[in-house]
Amino acid sequence: MPPKSCYIILFAKISKFTDTIFPNLFAPMSSENDDPFPENDAPVIIPIEDSLDLHTFSPKELKAVVEEYLFQCHQKGFKEVRIIHGRGKGVQRQMVRTILEKNPLVLRFENALPEAGGWGATRVKLRS
Questions:
Q1: What pLDDT was estimated at residue 6?
Q2: Distance from C-alpha of 33 to C-alpha of 22, rounded to nearest angstrom
Q3: Per-residue pLDDT averaged across 56-83, rounded?
Q4: Which residue spans within the chain are E strands per DSSP?
Q5: Looking at residues 41-65, what average pLDDT do you find?
Q6: pLDDT score, position 46
Q7: Percent above pLDDT 70 for the chain
Q8: C-alpha angle with apex 33: 29 to 36, nearest 5 degrees?
Q9: Contact status, residue 119 vs residue 111, Cβ threshold 8 Å
Q10: Of the candidates 60, 66, 26, which has an alpha carbon nearest to the alpha carbon of residue 41?
Q11: CA–CA dist 70, 73 (Å, integer)
């Protein structure tokens, strides 16, 4: 095993290299405007298509996203849509289906066909 001094020298060289390439990598942020992950309450615009993938949304956003998506699809004249919630343990699927049961725009829903996601997605028939 090499002496500890080798590790310190190696770390110093890496640190010097990193500082050269990324001079502000470890610099403290100067204000809230520099935050790389700002809390942003601005609406997210998503295209209205015949399927919605919920993987990018947090569970707390689920109800609002699904309800707005169904409303917009109904307004655009969609008769059938697919909501992709993933397979996992089924928690998100149950949340989606609870929302669908209460939504007056929904005629019926079921698991998607196997080639369209199977039980990882829900096929929704909308009222006319």
A1: 39
A2: 20
A3: 95
A4: 51-53, 80-84, 106-111, 121-126
A5: 87
A6: 72
A7: 66
A8: 70
A9: yes
A10: 60
A11: 5
Q: Are 106 and 96 contacting, i.e. CB atoms less than 8 angstroms apart?
A: no
Is residue 84 a contact partner of residue 117, using CB atoms and an 8 Å limit? Answer: yes
The alpha carbon of residue 78 and the mean position of all alpha carbons in its chain are separated, in whole angstroms, by 23
> The whole model's pTM is what?
0.66
Largest CA distance in the chain: 76
pLDDT exceeds 70 at position 15: no
Whether 50 and 80 have beta carbons less than 8 Å apart is answered as yes
Domains of the chain: 4-34 (no CATH), 51-126 (3.30.1370.110)
86 class by beta-carbon count within 10 Å (0-12 exposed, 13-18 middle, 19+ buried): middle
Contacts of 86 (CB under 8 A, 6+ apart): 54, 55, 92, 93, 120
> What number of CA atoms fall less than 13 Å from residue 120's CA on the CB side?
10
Residue indicated by tokens 């640190």? 15
The full length of the chain comes to 128
**Residue 8 CA: distances (Å) to CA of 15, 60, 111:** 10, 46, 58
